[in-house]
Amino acid sequence: MSTGSRRTARSGRRCCRSRASLAADDFPAVPNGAYIASVTSADDELDLTGLSALYEQHPAGDHITRYTATGHYFYVLNSGNAVNFLHGACVGPFIYLVQAEILAALSLLAAGDRGPGLHECPDTIRHRIASTWLKVFNGEP
């Protein structure tokens, strides 16, 4: 595991990304009550294998597991597997909306002088993407 992902876990940030972003020795630094979700397979993001020795596991709702140790608890959604595929991997044509916005965002980044920070596509671009999608997949004018 990289020290970058350790710092991310301990600083309380809400996301991190690398192979096995959270290893068993990182979970004690996860803030109490945190919800951990992944959008890829659990084995790519989370090393949950060693947690059974450190934490008790209890169902806390549909697709939610509460991990508890003395004075510490957190929740893992969908056993660490992708929450966006909770009800099956059927994406259908909706994925084209996501892909179109990714391409539009890349175009904006490549065309402009963007400084560091979080950037989003403007609503005008999102509306154009949605309108085009509705025309193609819904037959709307």
Description:
This protein is of the alpha+beta class and 141 residues long. It folds into two domains: 3-85, NAD(P)-binding Rossmann-like Domain (Rossmann fold, 3-Layer(aba) Sandwich); 92-138, no CATH class. It is 32% helix and 14% strand. Strands 1-4-3-2 form a four-stranded mixed sheet, with no helix packed on it. A hairpin with a 2-residue loop joins strand 3 (64-69) and strand 4 (72-77). Helix 3 (95-111) packs antiparallel against helix 4 (123-138). The longest helix has 17 residues, at 95-111.
Quick description:
The protein has helices at 3-10, 42-45, 95-111, 123-138, and strands spanning 35-36, 56-61, 64-69, 72-77.
- The CATH architecture of the largest domain can be given as 3-Layer(aba) Sandwich
Q: Helical amount among residues, as a percent range?
A: 25-40%
Give the class-level CATH name of the largest domain. Answer: Alpha Beta
SSE order? HEHEEEHH
Number of domains: 2
CATH topology of the largest domain: Rossmann fold
Strand sequence of the main sheet, in spatial order?
A: 1-4-3-2
Distance between the termini: 51 Å
Structural class: alpha+beta
Oligomer: single chain
Largest pleated sheet: 4 strands, mixed
Give the CA-based shape: elongated
Low-confidence stretches: 1-18
